[in-house]
Design brief:
Layout: E1 6-10, H1 14-27, E2 32-36, H2 39-46, E3 59-63, H3 72-80, E4 90-94, H4 99-107, E5 112-115, H5 119-141
Parallel strand pairs: 1-2, 1-3, 3-4, 4-5
Helix pairs in contact: 2-3
Length: 142
Amino acid sequence: MISKLNVLLVEDDDVSAEAVIRSLRKVDVDLCITVADNGKIALDILNNTHPTLFLEHPFLVLLDLNMPVMNGFEFLDAVRTDPKLKDIVVFILTTSDDDRDKSKAYHQNVAGYMVKSSVGPQFARLSTLLEAYKDAIDLNCR
């Protein structure tokens, strides 16, 4: 059974990143969380070209949409067109409640879309999704 899941949190706001990390630790203490300040740094980590940060499998990505340098949609475009990265599991975690952003994200095959202002009640759902993902990975490893 998979006991440790790695999470790449792509978030430029330190306060939001810390709140997400604290909330994730409450639902699952065995998470290994790596933080990238923008999509470019996240791509460097995923491509193993970042000088100090790396990510072990299995992992998933929690992605903010509004960031400097490379925003969440630019990151998704790069990931979904890269044959090595296209199947990565990505959840959106953003301030945008705009239906156009939700639609655009789901067209990029994201696994879920959560609005930060209501993320408290949704963290129970995220916990369920993380457990289901761990179970799915475990089934594939047998």
